[in-house]
Write a structure and sequence with these properties.
Elements lengths: L1 H20 L16 E4 L6 E6 L5 E8 L9 E12 L2 E6 L5 E11 L11 E12 L5 E11 L6
Antiparallel strand pairs: 1-2, 2-3, 3-4, 4-5, 5-6, 6-7, 7-8
Length: 156
């Protein structure tokens, strides 16, 4: 009889101890399975865009391109991102204005034809790039085009 009363109490104590050993775990914030950070081709041979994805989906980086106005033709220009965002695979960025020119991109990041991260085009950035140009009279013109930027091979 004493044993019959003691058994439920013993089970209760043991289960309480087991529950106390494993406190509920709060899941870590989900990190994207793919890291799209890296260097990608840009419009012309020798030009590129550097994309860095931060933990919170914020995107930093810059476009490195050749100038094409009379005053900077052939000069290498860096245009840093004023803002950038990655939401899943949806990528957008806007560059700072340099010599009256800035870019706005809206599109996606996708797996490309590269077989491994060390291959060219392991990732591709596809979407619409709009280039804006301010002339001497402060008139802004824009030109949009569909683009595909291929990732450069990553070092092992």
């Amino acid at each position: 009889m004493k044993l019959a009363r003691l058994l439920p109490l013993t089970l209760l104590i043991c289960s309480s101890l087991l529950a106390a050993q494993n406190p509920p775990q709060t899941p870590a914030p989900a990190k994207p399975a793919d890291d799209y950070s890296g260097m990608y081709s840009f419009l012309r041979e020798g030009e590129f865009v550097q994309i860095t994805v931060e933990d919170d989906g914020r995107v930093t980086g810059f476009v490195s391109r050749y100038g094409d106005s009379d005053s900077d033709r052939g000069t290498f220009l860096n245009q840093f991102f004023k803002q950038g965002k990655l939401d899943g695979t949806k990528l957008s960025f806007t560059t700072e204005t340099v010599h009256g020119v800035w870019f706005d991109f809206k599109g996606t990041v996708e797996r490309g034809e590269g077989k491994a991260p060390g291959d060219e085009a392991y990732y591709v950035v596809k979407g619409t790039l709009t280039g804006y140009h301010t002339d001497a009279d402060k008139k802004v013109t824009s030109k949009s085009q569909e683009v595909t930027f291929k990732s450069f091979p990553r070092e092992a």
